[in-house]
Amino acid sequence: KLLSTQSLPTITSPQIMHTPILSDHRRKKIVVTGGAGFVGSHLVDKLMMEGHEVTVLDNFFTGQKKNIAHWLQHPNFSLVVHDVTEPIQLEVQEIYHLACPASPPHYQFNPVKTIKTSTMGTLNMLGLAKRVGAKILLTSTSEIYGDPQVHPQKEDYWGNVNTVGPRSCYDEGKRVAETMMYSYKNQNHVDIRVARIFNTFGPRMHPNDGRVVSNFIIQSLQNKPITIYGEGEQTRSFQFVDDLVNGLHALMNGPYDGPVNLGNPDEYLVRDFAVLIKKLTNSASEIQKLEQTKDDPSRRKPDISLAKEKLGWSPKVKVEDGLQKTIAYFQGVLDQAGEIIPT
Ligand code: NAD
Ligand code: UDP
Ligand code: UDP
Question: What is the pLDDT of residue 339?
Answer without folding.
Answer: 80
